[in-house]
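=== Structure Prediction Worksheet ===
Name of assembly: unnamed complex
Input type: mixed (protein and possibly other molecules)
Chain count: two
Listed entries:
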Amino acid sequence: MAVLVIADHDNQSLKDSTHKTVTAAQKLSGDVDVLVGGTNAAAIAAEAAKIAGVRKVLAAESAELGQGLAEAFEALVVPLAANYDAVLTPATSQGKNISPRIAAKLDVAQISDVVEVVDANTFVRPIYAGNALETVQSSDAKKVITVRPTVFKAAGEGGSAQVETIAAPAAPAKARFVGQEIVKSARPELSGAKIVVSGGRAMGSAEEFQRVIEPLADKLGAAVGASRAAVDAGYAPNDYQVGQTGKVVAPELYVAVGISGAIQHLAGMKDSKVIVAINKDPDAPIFQVADYGLVADYKAAVPELMDELSKVGK
Amino acid sequence: MKVLVPVKRVIDYNVKARVKADQTGVDLANVKMSMNPFCEIAVEEAVRLKEKGAATEVVAISVGPTQAQETLRTALAMGADRAILVQTDQDLEPLAVAKVLKAIVAEESPELVVMGKQAIDGDNNATGQMLAALLDWPQATFASAVEVSGGKAKVTREVDGGLQTIEVDLPAIVTADLRLNEPRYASLPNIMKAKKKPLDVKELGSLGVDTAPHLKVVKVTEPPKRAGGVKVETAADLVMKLKNEAGVL
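=== Predicted Assembly ===
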């Protein structure tokens, strides 16, 4: 039994979610290959080859793959899938875009957002915004799976897999890349950060969000997140959104400032190790999941918190 | 241009799902059901395309039980022209739904299918992509802006890290993300008018589609509960506890 992991990268470097998906793949089989499709594929493949326990890395170079077009990945992966018993992709926006297309072409079900591999046919996944966990058994000979990266440990370094360059098949020209706007940030990436500071609707404006949340995040070396309410109101860019419809995070420390804690938001952060809530409403649902709750107006509480953090050398 | 909009009847997004004691599923008896929020956004976008003159007809479709007719009436009240229910009491997997939709696409020949990016019950985020694959149509998922003209759609997509814009040739599949639009409320006169709009009911069996499940649900359980936390009085307390008790600072 062999497993193919489709690597997550930004055409510059490999992302941590790939290492985590390799860990999930290793629970299925010892023979794990990694596929890197994109531009700069050779350099990224060399990084993937260093992941401990990887058997082989396949590198396919093309502009369409680099642009993440699902049609290009379908053309690349579907023929390759003949050699594998499972195809795993991290459940990032890219993974979610390409994986179901591959599953349908192979006429198999996709098992989305897997949080536990029970055995080679049995998997656990959250449903209903994380309010229930479903254990499913697949009868498909070939499995197509997306993996929730936050719940798996990243596979270590120290491997020395062989890199094989493969040709990228011509992609159907029905979809074309026009452009992209990537938000530049010096802070750690939200889904991989050890600490996340999130702001909610209580901030009231984008200026206030930046004034309050960002300095606190910088002090803690944290990534910045936001509730859907804050994103919809335009206080924060939409890729900051934590929740069922945004990113799922599981940092060591999650600080929710002025967030009530709607179930859709909790779905994105309730696996955090320690949750801190600062909210002036003592009945806010966020306090039901928070390890430490401070009932206070953030306007007073955040500056005090900043002072106290300075005192302990942060 | 004809636009097809698949919609799903799901548990209302404000309701907290409760797992059944026998672990066979989530208890849906006497629970408020509504149109999946992403489907509402898809219907809204299709109706706006019609209002802009880019679309001529909007057809809503649902695959599900008799009660899904209510969901279709909601779509009609929002501005869809007619509706199709593929009736079944089976709870279909995304692949099966995609196959049913493919059969309907063959009958209806729409040039655009607009649907939600995921349903809030199964949280699969797969049906749109699967339908695109089965039809060999291009896909534009997680759309936050759609522009249709000259046999093409220019779609801005929400991706990790920001936004991406792609152009797809029609026919195509677009899946709606939250920020594509704000769905309208159906007005009372429109709800009344929607009752008179055509709603075709087809039996799932009549389509000759293989809907056999590929996945067996072994059990459905509650997620582990978080241990109850404590309230702290001051920021100083909080920092001390985080440093000494939790050890995360």
